[in-house]
Amino acid sequence: MKQMLINSAFADQVIVNATLNIVYIKPSLHRDSLNLRNMQHNWLLACLSLFASCACAANDVLFNFAGKSFYNEQHVLMLKAGDQLPAYEVNTSVITVKPRVNSLRNQLNGFYQQNGFQVLRTAATGFMDLQLSGANDYQSELLKLANSGLFAVVEPTSFGRYTFIPNDTQYSNQWHLPQVSAPAAWDLNAGVASVVVAVLDSGTDFNHEDLAAGPDAFDSIWRNPGEDAWADPTDPTTGNGIDDDNNGYIDDWIGYNFDQDTNDGSGLFDHGTGVAGVVAAKTNNKLGVAGVAGGNNSAGVAVMIGNIGSFAPNGAVLDDAILYAAENGARIIQLSLTIIQSAAIDAAINAAYINHGVLVVNAAGNSATPTVDYPASHVNVMAVGASNQFDGRVSTSQYGPNLEIAAPGVDILTTTIGSAYVSMTGTSFSAPMTSGVAALVLSRNPMLTHVQVREILRNSADKVGGYDYDYDVDFPGRSLEFGYGRLNAHAALLLSDSYQTLSGAIFLDGFEGDVIFKNGYD
């Protein structure tokens, strides 16, 4: 019932629109203004109370049966088998039963005839589908069958859904997405634009066909809500030349180039465009590839662009980029780089993580050493290693006690400059996969803290590869090769449903001080 008509003495018509949360009132012409105001006030309260009761009822459990909960969702009867499981539409015309072995055929036939049930089909296993007459409500029919004593099993039937397989033309070449159970995760949530992932890298081609708005009319690029739009959305030189939001950066409508101190976040090196595509290439848009959190033929999570150096990460501006992302609404900061340890970068990471509640994710490195590079080694950064198609460690992937999780990092098909696509290898592409799943978790449950998201990713990871996940009694469930395991998107989203309260805890896993003295993107 989207609208309810209410008769009143003061108005010709009162309409409560429960879909839009609006109460419409058309006053009667013969009422004086004072009485009208008083009566309007009382009736409006009554209408709002009625609306509130209707809104609550839409989500309340109507009844429980055989371990399943039934409730109303926009006038459709739905059922769930558990709090962490998805809801399904009930097939209200059919109930499945299995007669008891001692139930006689004539008893069953008499019962069916008396109650208007019709046997649609009988399986070799003894289960039967009964067509309901429609004369009674669904709950009554369930109870009638259950209380008859004739059946060993009485269960509702439902309409399921096919696991979401996107129509992106090159999806079949993206082995990594099924490996981390992304299609099953997309059945629960494919990403929402309110979750912002800052990709601080070599720049991103914001005009790429699978990132920018095209015929599908949606994109994966963050827009600064405080900054005036460019006159030409594809040309950063067409801004108004004003720092509209007073954040210290002029015309930063889609992010900023910190290395060149301009508002053009694109770059000459395709590393950043590839990383952005892993996170949020538009999904199910009949084009290119699918991102982990690229939506479902609609906007997925938003990529905030931060160019920190086209060919090498500039340590002098990395801290500025981290702070910019944290202060401008990013929930996740995605890094795929190594650099020498810096007090300024440490301070920026700590500010983002502790003060702004931002999850910081970084690639572990590709030097095959038994320690992860900086800044992945920082206590407030989630270090990600690379796995292969057989759930083994990629030989070049760095590992060790600071590694938290692994994700696919071989032949990852993603976006590249010029609306093209390329396969890339390295922990650089394992990290954005993890950032993308973190974004899915926040899309499904936006009230989670960064600490909780980090914990969910760890606790939902698959313990694959045959590694010793209990080598350290202080960190049970953690291995040197894969950390807490290989990323699992579907398990992470299911686990996120059980996190209901905010937590201020901070992970203190220990800090690995060894640093590989090299600068570069992994």
Overall mean pLDDT score? 84
* Quaternary organization: single chain
Distance N to C terminus: 55 Å
Helix/strand structural class? alpha/beta
Number of helices: 11
What's the arrangement of secondary structure elements?
Blueprint: E1 3-6, E2 11-17, E3 22-27, H1 33-59, E4 61-65, E5 68-73, E6 76-80, E7 88-99, H2 105-115, E8 118-122, E9 128-131, H3 138-146, E10 151-159, H4 176-179, H5 182-186, E11 196-201, E12 255-257, H6 271-280, E13 302-307, H7 315-327, E14 332-335, E15 337-338, H8 343-355, E16 359-363, E17 382-387, E18 405-408, E19 412-416, E20 420-424, H9 427-444, H10 450-459, H11 489-496, E21 520-521
Protein model, in words:
InterPro entries: Peptidase_S8/S53_dom (IPR000209), Peptidase_S8/S53_dom_sf (IPR036852), Peptidase_S8_His-AS (IPR022398), Peptidase_S8_Ser-AS (IPR023828), Peptidase_S8_subtilisin-like (IPR050131), Peptidase_S8_subtilisin-rel (IPR015500). It comes from Marinicella litoralis. Keywords: Hydrolase, Protease, Serine protease. Belongs to the peptidase S8 family. Residues 194-485 form the Peptidase S8/S53 domain. Residues 1-58 and 501-519 have low confidence and may be disordered. The protein is α/β, with parallel strands linked by helices and 522 residues long. The protein folds into three domains: 3-59; 62-159, Alpha-Beta Plaits; 178-521, Peptidase S8/S53 domain (Rossmann fold, 3-Layer(aba) Sandwich). Helix content is 25%, strand content 21%. The radius of gyration is 28 Å and the shape is elongated. The strands form five sheets. Strands 4, 5, 6, 7, 8, 9 and 10 form a seven-stranded antiparallel beta sheet that branches. A seven-stranded parallel beta sheet has the order 12-13-11-14-16-17-18, sandwiched between helices. A three-stranded antiparallel beta sheet has the order 1-2-3, covered by helices on one side.
